[in-house]
UniProtKB/TrEMBL annotation:
This protein's UniProt keywords: Acyltransferase, Transferase
InterPro entries: Acyl_CoA_acyltransferase (IPR016181), Bact_Acetyltransf (IPR050832), GNAT_dom (IPR000182)
PANTHER family per record: AMINOALKYLPHOSPHONATE N-ACETYLTRANSFERASE-RELATED (PTHR43877:SF2), AMINOALKYLPHOSPHONATE N-ACETYLTRANSFERASE-RELATED-RELATED (PTHR43877)
Origin organism lineage: Bacteria, Bacillati, Actinomycetota, Actinomycetes, Kitasatosporales
Organism of origin: Streptomyces boluensis
Protein name according to UniProt: GNAT family N-acetyltransferase
Pfam families: Acetyltransf_1
Keyword Cell inner membrane in annotation: no
Annotated N-acetyltransferase domain residues: 20-191
GO molecular function: acyltransferase activity, transferring groups other than amino-acyl groups
Amino acid sequence: MGTSTGPSTGTGTRTQSGTEAVELLTGAQLHALADEFGDLLVDIVAGGNSLGFLAPFDHAEAAAWWRARAADVDAGRQLLLAVRQQGRLFGTVGVALTDKPNGRHRAEIVKLMVHSAARGLGLGRTLLAAAERAAVTHGVTLLVLDTETGSGAEGFYRAAGWTEVGTIPDFAADPQGVLRPTTLFYKRLARG
């Protein structure tokens, strides 16, 4: 488990988990780092993971998509966490909060990404654990997510204590436009 180390640059919050610093970003920080986030997203899509995007997917489009998310971060509709080392962005994850009065106890894990150059170092586990902790601090007791069926992410989420709900056929297209099934997961969180 991480411990809060207080404010970092801007008004984001930094959490130390092992040797990785996970930062909860503000909208202004996201806007300033949009080019780095664009690089990360392009790397992920080029690696065969769509995350909602189709190939070809260029950097300008990716950076613009991230800049558009800054308003959601500032409005409190989304928490955005990132791992940066030596001035380079290596991973990110979002927690999409709901504004529905009957659903404020739940949120969705979105866009968990680790750069291809940093895979296998535990950054995905670090980011997911930090996202779960951040969700708890915002009153969330139930998280949901979806991932492509048959991908390595399924085993990753199971190993992290997530429960599979089921599979939906032809849910989303991969980067080449081929429809793929998705697997839904949930995880209950204990209040701190």
